[in-house]
Amino acid sequence: MSLPLLTRSLRGPQLSKALRHSLTTTTRYQSTTTRYQSTTTNNNNTAKPATTSTTSTTPKPATTTSTSSSPSTKTTPTLKDLLDHPPSPANPTEDRIDWTRSFHGLSATPFPKECADILLAPTDPEEVEIKPDGILYLPEIKYRRILNKAFGPGGWGLVPRSESIVTPKMVTREYALVCNGRLVSVARGEQDYFSPDGIPTATEGCRSNALVRCCKDLGIASELWDPRWIRKFKAQYTREAFVEHVVNKRKTKIWVRKDDTVGYPWKETKF
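^ Mitochondrial genome maintenance protein MGM101, sequence as received from the core. Prediction below:
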């Protein structure tokens, strides 16, 4: 019902009551509308989180200049293929020779005659030893003396060409003999051992064994590989003796020099 019709139908107190009710309803509607508009405005004015651009704001790492921070002296890293090879000081590339791989100077030119005369000198029978099984040998210290006499102390050296290989019973390693800055020979040494405590000694024996094998290429004590010379030497300087082991009483036959006596743990006996 519209307001004019309502006014005509109501009189006196009824009209006043109806008008108050209409005004109260209108006021409440306007108040509710105002609060809704205020809430909507606040929601629209709420700040949204800022979106950051990773491409534009990400800082770039600083670039350092290698020339300003590099040390004045450099060292070469440890050789990868030689696990127990110590690092060596770096030299210019054109002056440095990697003896673990290089064959520099091999067969380039003969050694001087004075060196060759020392290396090829006949072996003195008084310096030759014989093992109990009949194998002739020259003590390795005498090979070193010949090299020192021919090239001088410091004029030659042994260079490892591989890492040490340690098996449950043997140590082996490859070495190169370098004389007067030239490669002469490459050989692999070996040495047996019987307990882990003997590995350091076996390592040194392996090095000496490689030295003896390398010296064959220089002609040092070459008679020890000559079958005719060996037979003649045995007939003239050695003998076979029957011996008994003093611990286990085992009897056998061994070779000794004629000017030597049978030593411990053997004692000479009649078979």
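The helical segments are 3-9, 13-45, 54-57, 66-69, 113-119, 140-151, 199-215, 227-237.
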